[in-house]
Amino acid sequence: SLSTEFYSSSCPKLLDTVKCTVEAAIKKETRMGASLLRLFFHDCFVNGCDGSILLDDTSSFKGEKNAGPNKNSARGFEVIDAVKSAVEKVCPGVVSCADILAIAARDSVKILGGPEWDVKLGRRDARTASQSAANNGIPAPTSTLNQLISKFGALGLSTKDLVALSGGHTIGQARCTTFRSHIYNETNELVTSFAQTRQSNCPRASGVGDNNLAPLDLQTPASFDNHYFNNLVDRKGLLHSDQQLFNGGSTDSIVRGYSSNPSSFFADFASAMIKMGDISPLTGSKGEIRKNCRSVN
Ligand code: HEM
Ligand SMILES: [Ca+2]
Ligand SMILES: [Ca+2]
């Protein structure tokens, strides 16, 4: 099983090396912290946290990068490459890409002001990836609350984990195409002024402005805080799936709790990230330690 000490003798400089490269990337572009956090989520939800999302397509298999939830959307692969080369310089052939992603996600949250946790390590890298598993496993922004609960439940994550982890939307951006129908057709769930603000940069007609960006947290998209939950209580959730967490259902009370008590959100987010990081890792002699995160050895 995974352990926080996994590389302490085989690569004592690992954590400092990763942090240094992630810090530089976030300094260059704040949004990168959000993108790295999301990459880890999209890895863990497809055959576990095994670095599968990092593999480029080849002639013999279709990887996950072009699955619906990732295409024109998942970003940060160059940063993971940069971290991997820095790590290979200090301890060649020792550290998996899956673990690098877990550390990069943890560091991103911390650098942007969120909670800290000791990251468990010892994952190995998959030798394959699955486009169809990515399409089926990663929840869509059109999901209902029940669909979200069951997608998380299928991976051993509770309803509370679902709400806490959705708090990842306290940072980062979404494209118009992912929230258009919510801001035009579900205005009954939203405060009018918010729907209007978002409509102003996301035209109603599909195909127009599809890639225009809006912040997932309208207040502090570059800080990891609990404002995402305040927004939901104020009926200013950007995605349909966000507002589903506070729309008269069973999760309203959890959202209210996190909106009034930031430290309970931080504590629950940290434990849910550790739980998500534990989803079916490859350990022992399974998988491999990739030399290049984009391809199998
Ligand atoms: C609950 C189900 C979830 C759904 C339906 C969902 C959906 C989405 C969508 C549609 C986007 C915008 C993508 C784009 O327009 O390109 C997004 C962005 C993002 N998601 Fe989620 N997400 C969910 C859960 C999570 C979780 C669990 C995390 C992390 C713990 C997370 C972290 C992020 C981050 C940080 C961004 C912004 C990325 C960036 O700016 O590059 N999401 N999500
Ligand atoms: Ca995976
Ligand atoms: Ca925020």
Topology:
Layout: H1 14-28, H2 31-44, H3 77-90, H4 97-111, H5 131-137, H6 145-153, H7 159-166, E1 173-175, H8 176-185, H9 192-199, E2 213-215, H10 227-233, H11 240-244, H12 252-260, H13 262-277
Antiparallel strand pairs: 1-2
Helix pairs in contact: 1-3, 1-4, 2-4, 7-13, 10-12, 12-13
Residues 170-171, 217, 220-221, 223, 225, 227 line the site of one calcium ion (CA).
Cofactor: Ca(2+); heme b
Binding site for Ca(2+) 2: 170, 217, 220, 225
Pfam family, one: peroxidase
Descriptive notes:
The protein has helices at 14-28, 31-44, 77-90, 97-111, 131-137, 145-153, 159-166, 176-185, 192-199, 227-233, 240-244, 252-260, 262-277; strands at residues 173-175, 213-215. With 297 residues, the chain is mainly α. It binds protoporphyrin IX containing FE and calcium ion (2 copies).
Brief descriptors of the model:
297 residues; mainly alpha; two-stranded antiparallel sheet; 13 helices; 46% helix; binds protoporphyrin IX containing FE; binds calcium ion
Spell out the helices and strands N to C: HHHHHHHEHHEHHHH
Number of beta strands: 2
State which percent range the strand residues make up. under 5%
SS-derived structural category:
mainly alpha
Rg from alpha-carbon coordinates: 19 Å
Poorly predicted runs: none
Mean of the pLDDT scores? Answer: 98
The order of strands across the largest sheet is 1-2
Q: Spell out which ligands are present.
A: protoporphyrin IX containing FE, calcium ion
Helix content: 40-55%
Could you tell me how far the N terminus lies from the C terminus, measured between alpha carbons in angstroms?
24 Å
Shape: globular
| Largest sheet features | 2 strands, antiparallel
- Helical run tally: 13
GO molecular function: heme binding; lactoperoxidase activity; metal ion binding
Keywords: Calcium, Disulfide bond, Glycoprotein, Heme, Hydrogen peroxide, Iron, Metal-binding, Oxidoreductase, Peroxidase, Secreted, Signal
Organism: Arachis duranensis
Cofactor: Ca(2+); heme b
